[in-house]
TrEMBL record:
Keywords: ATP-binding, Nucleotide-binding. Residues 947-977 are annotated as: Disordered. GO terms for molecular function: adenylate cyclase activity; ATP binding; DNA binding. It comes from Streptomyces kaniharaensis. SMART domains: TPR. This is AAA family ATPase. Transmembrane segments: none annotated. One of its GO terms (cellular component) is cytoplasm. PANTHER family: TESTICULAR SOLUBLE ADENYLYL CYCLASE (PTHR16305), TRANSCRIPTIONAL ACTIVATOR DOMAIN (PTHR16305:SF35). It comes from the Bacteria. One of its GO terms (biological process) is regulation of DNA-templated transcription. Gene3D superfamilies: Tetratricopeptide repeat domain, Winged helix-like DNA-binding domain superfamily/Winged helix DNA-binding domain.
Amino acid sequence: MRDRDAELRSAVTSLDKLCREFAAGGTEIGELLTFSGRPGIGKTSLLHEVRRIAKLRDGATVLFARGGEQQIKEPYHVLRQLLQPALTSLQPDEFRQVMGTWEEVVGPAMGLKQPKAGARRLDPQGVRDGLDYVLTQLAPRRAPMVMIVDDLHWADLESLSWLTQFAVRARELPVLLVLAFREDESDWQTDARQHHGAVLKLATRKHELNRLSLVSITDIIRAELGDKAEDAFCYEFWSVVNGNPYEAVALLEQVREQELDPLEENSRQLRELAVDANGMTLKSWLDRLGASTLRFAWACAMLGTDIRIDLATRISTQSAEGARESIKQLRKQRVLTQTPNGNLEFVHPLIASSIYNTMPEATRTGMHGVAAAEIENAGLGLLAASRHLVETFSGEGDDRTVRKLRKAAAEHLLIGAPEAAQRCLHRALNEPPADDIRAEVLYELGCSALLTDPSATVNQLQLALDPDEGPLRPELRVDATFRLSEVLAHSGEIRKAALVCQEEAAVTGDRDGKLRLQAASFMWHAFRRSEEDGPGRSRRLGELCDGLTGREAADRAVLAMRAWDLTLRGAPSADALAYADDVLEAGRLPKGLGWTDSTWGFELPSMLGLTYTYNDRIAQAERLFADAIIQFEVAGWSGAHRGFAYFLMGLARFRRGLLAEAEDFLRRALRLSERIGSKLPLAWDAVGVLVDTMLARGRVDEAWELATGFGFQPPYHDTAMVLPDAPSLYGKLLVAKRRYAGAAAALTEAGAQLEARGWHNTVWAPWAGHLAIAIAQDEPERAREYAQKAVRDARTFGTASAIGTALRLQAQIEDGQQAVELLEQAVMHLGQSPAGYEHAVALVELGAALRRVGRLEDAQEYLYQGIELAQHCSAEGLVEQARRELANYGLRPNRLGDFRETLSQSEWDVAKLAVRGVPPQRIAEELGVQLSLVNRRLAAVYRKAGSGPDGLASALGLPGQQRQATRPGRETEDGDE
């Protein structure tokens, strides 16, 4: 710890601050402290000292982990070291609380439990999100918490990506995160270099360790060799090792072994000795340790950190006695040391690297094979053995090795480690597998990257489907084709996705497989931005649907597509809903069509939910979307799947008029999309509805800035259809900005494209109504034609929200009594729909229209109703519009509330009896409830009325106890109002 006073003070300061502020009740007090420097500069020693000091703090929880050069490709190796001790120490009840709904995701990844039989593969982002939740729960329970990670540059990518992400959140928790790593980016694995800069940027305290001073090196030399060491010798020694502590210790060993006197005349030999000390070639290690001990050291180097003696003994093929002698020799030579749990570890990671690198290639490869077998025999499983298995000899065509690698790959996918799975499958292909299963291995390799690497998935699945690569079982050909189409579609290649399924369906003999591919082809065509023969596709889909006789998952999938097709076409809503209802079982998705079902993907239930959303069955849609969010979270799918579920829920909330909630869901969807990639179809969807939501909330300029900043304008996404229709949304935005010429051009083009496809849904694509507004001033007759067309299409579709909204838009281009009549019809229809915001707009616009024809009393009532509903919808702009309308004509901008409307029916029942003078005990007996409940209800009545028992009758608007109180708008038992 020489020359490390400043770094230690910084660490102690951070520890003191953490403990002090936590004792004072602080929670968001975390820090990130980093130590970096060259190899051997003393980072590990410094961290050990920080760890020791932290353990002396009362109540502190200290977690420690170390990256390992040989374990760099072992998934979650660092995180398991770091978190397992803390999680396994929890009592069962506390463990469940800490894990929450993430137990089936975090548990397998952290090695705390085996994945359930039939479990689905985990999304790595889902595992990271689950770990975020777990640490958020764990940290306050074990605070103050100190998390120390050494050799971060050798952390496995799964652990490193989470640690980098968590470093942002650590400041929100009572956690001190201490990381040590090599400064030079060349020491980081290629995929991890992006994390290097991120960690440095996030650090609140960062220290680059400098070389030791000449004074410190001189003290070290004289402590080892005596005061006779001359200054010139010490200076040359310091210059040769460049102040590096590790190199200084290694060179001192050489000086002692050579019995070199520390005199100036011998200083010239130091550079030659330093080469031997640092190089540590095979010959030098053999000379130092002997063949048997070196072989044991090789076995230890292969195992990495926390080395089990029994495994190292078997891998090195030594006897127990021979192993004990090797350990004794290696400890004497300061190569190995023993840990508190009885295992071994290298005194310094540079020694481990040096020993591993001296292994002849054939020896290393052979010993990896022995290690894989011994680890599996020890019951540690294929996950632990697989990193050795991938390093074994290939080219032998060993079927047993291929089977093990495929099984290991499957297990890696179950813990959210697709990169590790791909390494196993690539190695299996190099074995190589037998010709009759090669295509299957390619198929598995393609599927392993489904959630993380679309381009790799496309390449491998195309190879799996290539006849030159060998036969692929029919059921796997169907699934491979579907998976390929799925990835192509999610990447924006929707036409290609549809054609892939269409072509394979033509040569597929199995009825279920053929139907699955036909359905997928129809589905992808429906999601295309443009289509050559939309009406023809719809007709063929109808014919396919009419020919179905069963209710298997494939049949129901076709029904769901038909329901969505009819919705887009603006066909009678009842027909679309009839198909949709046939898909469900007791209001829920049937087996085989679930959100996380691997056969159909999430697109099918999404279509079903969208059908309900646009057919005024929003509550049903929200139940489906809520299930999606939960199921994706439980499955650990936190990427595009959960992002799309948030988008769908945001769309449903928007349609219902719950604008603040809609905006929250949509922004979450957009954040997830941006985390995955740039301008994916999901991002277009989220931005489109978010712009619409902000328009509804009256934030027109903010909506415009979001749209222009994102590029939400023609030509939109190259191939994918945006949900809902992007050109219609863009035209609506231009109308809101009063850019009528641009709006007219955009909406005219949108209408032409939609008409060609045969899509006439005025809620999905309200182009005609907004086009009428855009051209009303210049072309009033043409505007009326478009407005009337929108109303006709809406009446054909038949939902209350479609008709009401179309009538409301038509009223905007009319004047006087005609506008009033249209708005009265709009209010009537929208009042029967779940479209709360549209209803509020219609109420306010009706109030304004009534004011313009002189009906001020009626205008006032509708404006008040519009304000109340707009406030419920969080439509602040509409509230202000209605208040201005009232204020400009001398009307009160706010209606005094009637507390009676806030009383529940049960409170009214109690209040009516109390006004008659019935005592509480009698009220309880008459209503058949407990006295305590009566007293609580009476207290609520008195609080809302602002009166006690004596003034209650008056507060209710009644002259005395002779009459019973009635709720406004309710009839008494004898029929009088």
